[in-house]
Amino acid sequence: MDTPTQGPRLLLTHPLALGLLAVLMFAMTIPMTRLAGGDAAMPQIPPLVVALGRGALAAVPAALYLAWVRAPLPRRHEWPWLLGVVVGGPVVFPVCMGWAVHRVPAGHAAVVTGVLPLLTATLASWWMGQRAPWGFWLAGGVGIALVLGFVTVSHGASTSLWQAQGADAVLLLGMLGAAVAYVAGARATRQRPAAQVMSWALVLALPLTASGTLWVIAVDPVAAWAPHVGVPAWWALAYVALCSSWLGFFAWYAALARDTLRVSQLQLLQPFASMAIAAVGLGEHLHAWAPVFAVGVGLAVWAGQRQLQETRT
Description:
The protein is mostly helical. The protein has one domain. It contains 15 helices and no strands. Helix 3 runs antiparallel to helix 6 (106-112) and helix 4 (47-69) crosses helix 12. It is globular and about 60 Å long. The two termini are 20 Å apart.
């Protein structure tokens, strides 16, 4: 029987609790990226500076952390998984998302991210040998259908998933990159703590993120745009660098390493959390049907969790 102090401690280390904490942190990513980069009508920090600069900035505390804990260098068998995190996480996902949210509302981009849990679960089943019953996949498919259906309901046929000036196609590529990073990071976390995995990935990605940021700045000098950038945009860049690119993965990779299939489905809730944040923080319109679809997605997540629980008991 747990003591009173063990209960909260066990809750904070439970994979679903860690996963939910990470999802809430990641739900801020798209609105904060939108705030940092602005839009075509009112640009702030150039999108590629946000996309690549966040990884370069996060590499600084990551390197200090690795030095503080005296983390060992990656071993040979860890390199494929760390490279998967590097390519999918600090490079492909932020570049694709940064470009896309400069062209479509944050709420719209958030809904497209609803495909991420199914991509993550599929890769986990393939790479990590985690098998799920057919009911789990059915529940996940229903959740994805609800998310994509909400795109059509809220934005109309002219701005459905496959249109919006190609931004959604780029977002889908970014989601694939994120799924690769998630599963590769979860696999690497079997060998070392989650904090070290993401920190090493950021440090290894630094030649790409730093050189890319410097190249963008050389093409579009800081003096041309920095004076017009508001304070909220700088704070938003700091958030996506420290929380979205680094701290959030401490909880996320630790949760995925313990139960990738169940934890990955929590991200079905992320689009609706992002929309709510965009509505409150950015003043974007929240569609009247959003709560209905959010409840439906929540039920799909619950059904998928029940299928896995019944299989394991």
